[in-house]
Amino acid sequence: MRRLGKDGAIDSPGAYPNYFTMNEEPVLIIDDHDIFRSGLRLLLVNRLKIKAVEEARSLDETLAYMSQGPTPRLVTLDLRMPGVAGPEAIAALKEGWPDVPIVIISVSEHREDILACLAAGAFGYCPKSLSADETVDALKQVLKGQIYVPKVLHSPQQQVRAAGAAAFDVNRLTERQRQVLEALRTGATSKEIGRQLDLAEGTVKIHLAGIYRALGVKTRAEAIAKLK
Q1: Engineered SS bond to 61: which of 31, 56, 111, 145, CB 3.0-4.6 Å?
Q2: What pTM value is reported for the model?
Q3: 1.10.10.10, 1.10.405.10, 3.40.50.1240, 3.40.50.300: which CATH number matches 166-227?
């Protein structure tokens, strides 16, 4: 585990405990490739102005961090690391940090991998083929509480793979559910949908539950991926 100090240098754990626990929640990068972690850390610091960045090379190292480090504001996770697959790692992280957004960053652009991670509770999926600007935009979106679904999911090749899936009939929804659905397509949070439609957040969640059942999905991220 490594930490980014105040001067931008890499310091050992515990070097600036007050800085990390009091001034800003860190972003945690989980990836077993040193070069990728270093590159993403620079992107977070220089482009997103994140002052506190933590790194872990494995799920075991991450779980050890859970018991002693501050709760991160965001976790980026490699889809496949030695001994664990993305959805399994997401489930393990959600047990300890149920409210922390997780973004998968992976070389895989397979539809099945993307949907499996979103169904497991990830807030976003970033293929490593994204440009630096696209990655920054995706992470900004997640930090705002929104869901990021990569464009590759809706490429012609991916659409052909999904051609056998049953079409979603919007007419099965009530008028209010259709209004919530349109807001959901934009990536709006439950609070934002409530403000747009003058509804209580709890009422929005009830409508979302009905939409999820109609779509055959379990999570907001999975619903957005299926709608786009």
Answers
A1: 56
A2: 0.65
A3: 1.10.10.10
